[in-house]
Amino acid sequence: MPVETASRVARTTTGRGGLLARKRHRELLLIWLLLTPALLIFLAYRILPLLWNGVLSFQFWSPTKPAEWAGLFHYEEMFVYDDVFWTSLYNTFLYMLTAPISIGIAVVLALMVNSRIRGRGVYRTIIFLSYPLMVVAVGIIWRWLYDERVGLINYLLRQAGLIDEPIAFLESYGTALPSVIAAAIWQITGFFMIILLTGLQNIPPSLYEAASIDGASRWSQFWRITLPLLRPSIFICFVIAIIASFTSFDLIYVMTGGGPGHATELLITYIYKAAFTLSQFDYAGALTIVMFVLFVGIALLGNLLAGGDAGKVDIAE
Prior knowledge:
By secondary structure, the chain is mainly alpha-helical. It has helices spanning 2-56, 73-81, 83-95, 98-114, 120-128, 135-146, 152-159, 176-201, 205-213, 218-229, 231-247, 249-255, 267-277, 281-305; strands spanning 59-62, 65-69. A hairpin with a 2-residue loop joins strand 1 and strand 2 (65-69).
């Protein structure tokens, strides 16, 4: 009798396991079916152009004549002889400062909006309003703010007695890139605040209550509870900021066009000029591959520094 009971239990358990496995298989199949259109679009507009640029980077290519094998010629030209490439690479790394600065400001704003202050909904809306604006509109607004004659920033500085002559923010080699970086930070910080605010609101209040009972200070609670549990949200913001740093063509193009000289030239604007101004499509392909490798490397490094699984999403069984 005990043997029959054990056998019956084993069959029941096996049957339930099979049902759960089939259910999970159907769910995964449905997920992949729903993802397929988006993946096909991503393949057509992202992966295939990237592969084509990889092919171009090893060729002498022109729309008017047959392609010829170039080997590593374009990469040698880039790394050894092209000073503009190194300038644009340096500017791109400086532009990446938007990531830690905007995330740091967003953390402070999210903590403020998440606290019990009057009108926090109004503050949240005002701070977020910068993000839905078109980047071209943001560029035009900040060009007006920086204008030497009618710009609000120069006007306020003169009224405060801090300057005697207006500052040519976007025409000076030393101030052009920091000025564009400030505009980029203003534009994206509100979006990061919303992401981090969502992360804050998902932290169980009981953790803070237990920490308070144990005598933990607010700083200790932030360092040991808030910051570790915000790590996935911070990593998402970091990846978005890095992508924006490598693809911020429109803001640069509207505000400075890469000038003065090459003071605000980024890799993305240099790729555009190489392809559509100089018609060097093969060289632009090599620049694109280098930019892609840098982006992937920085994203992997950020994930490693964040703990190796910052972007991991667990799927419940």
